[in-house]
Structure formats: structure tokens, C-alpha cells
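FAQ: What does the model actually see?

It sees only this:
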Amino acid sequence: MDSNRTALPFREFSHRISLVFMLTLAAALLLLGRAETYVFDQARQVVTDLAAPLLEVASRPVAAARRIIERTDEYAYVFDENERLRAENARLLAWKEMALNLEARVARYEALLNVQLDPSINYVSGRAVSDAGGPFVDTVLVNVGREQGAKSGLAVVDTDGLVGRIVSTGPKASRVLLLTDLNSRVPVVIEPAHYKAVLAGDNTEWPKLEYLTNVSAVSPGDRVVTSGDGGLIPSGLPVGLVIQTNDGNLRVQTFSDRGRLDFVRVLQYEFPWQVERQDPPDVLKGPPASSSGSAASGSAAVAPGGAE
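And it is asked to produce this:
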């Protein structure tokens, strides 16, 4: 009982001391809050200056790790972009090759159209395939057959001029006898003198001219075209130029070159053999049949009277 009474004053004293301390602390904080702000700014600046080197040193590993991550992402993007560009480059190369092939084909077609033909002559375009078989020496195959209207005897031209004529046909292909073959005979005209001859192949590079009436009137460099005689090949197709060999003979250097044969045209030419019938003028006709009959009957009627 006495001990409780002794502790009670001490407890009351401690409570009073705590109260005084708290009031003092509150008053100090109130005074500090009312102090000038530059004091705190200076203190903050000092703390910042002290902490800046430490923060810089601490941030270097973080920045390095960030750069490594960014580089890794860039490398991954570059790798993907490289793969995409490779695929795109392959596609562009394929398109380029296709465009070049189409450009070359269009150029050959345009060159093929440079050979002027009679507008009334129809033709079928095809491609030539070199072939050394068959009974002839100089022949080629073209992918134009009977299904496209090809038949034996039709003329074949390329971008430069006359190539030859068809000698046999199949459903989808035909064999063309070239001008240089031994069996080739084509009637031609030498311009500008307009002398006619026969271009005869002899399995050499340059066909010869046969049945030329006036050799002296023809000189090297003269142009040779088809004459159209016989009605098998249309007239005016370019054939080549006259040249003179070392032995003094005149031959023809053909415009068409077998080594460059590609696109050709098969001319669907037919000579107009059918000629319409034309009656003679009326003045050349005899008297009508009815008038002749009447005159004959009249003469017969007079004759008996005269006899009486």
C-alpha cells in the first residue's frame, strides 16, 4: 500500500514532463515552419549536392543495362528487317527478270511488225525451234500447225525478212525449209533494175541466183525481194542483198539469220486463182434466138409461094 502511494507521484511527474516536452516540440516546429524558406532551400541544395555523385555512380549500371537491352532490341529488329529485305529483294529480282524477258519479247514482236505486209494477208505468230532432223539439211520447226491454219507452201518471215516456206505440217507444229537448203527455190526480183531470177539454195551460207538474164545489170548491194511468180509466196517480201564472192559469182546474203531465229510469222496467203466470169459486150453477141427463129420461118413460108 505504501509502495503504490510512493509510485503515484513519480508517475504524475513523468506525465507532466512528457506534456511539457510535447508542447515544447510543437512550439519548435511551429517556429521552424515560420522561418524563412531560403534556409530550407540551402539545406536541400546541400543534400542534393552531396547525393548527386552517389546517384550518378548508382545510375551507371542501370544505364548500361538499359543500353544493352536497347541494343538487343535493335539487333533483333535489324535481323528481322534484314530477313524481310532479303525476301523483298528476291521478289524484286524475280520481277526484274520477268520484266526484262517481257521487254525483250516485246522488242522482238515490235521488230517482227517492222516487216511490212499487204494488209489483206493474214498471219499466225509462232516461235522457231532449231531442228537438224528430217530429209532436209536446213530446216527449223515452228509451233504453228494445222490447228492454227498452217499448210504446206506458206511463206514464213521473221523480224528481218523471208525465212523460208513450210514443207510439212502437223497438228501443232510445222517444218520450215530455209532459203539456204539445197531444195529451196524462190522466185525473186533484184531492185532497182527489176530483173527476175530464182534464188536457189545449195546448203551454203549464201544462196545463189539462177536464171538471171542480165548479170551485168546487177551489182553488189542491190536489194532482193520476192517476185510473187507462181502465186505461192506474196511479192515484195525482203530477202537480202546481192554480194559477189571471191570466184566472181553473184550470191545473196539473206536478211534472215538462222542463228537468231525466234519469233516468226506464217503468212496465210492464197493467190486469187478464182476469176469471176465476165460476159462479152452486147455488140459482140449474135442476134437473139427468137429473131433467128422468126426469120427462118418467114423464109420457109415464102419459098413455097415462089415455087408456085
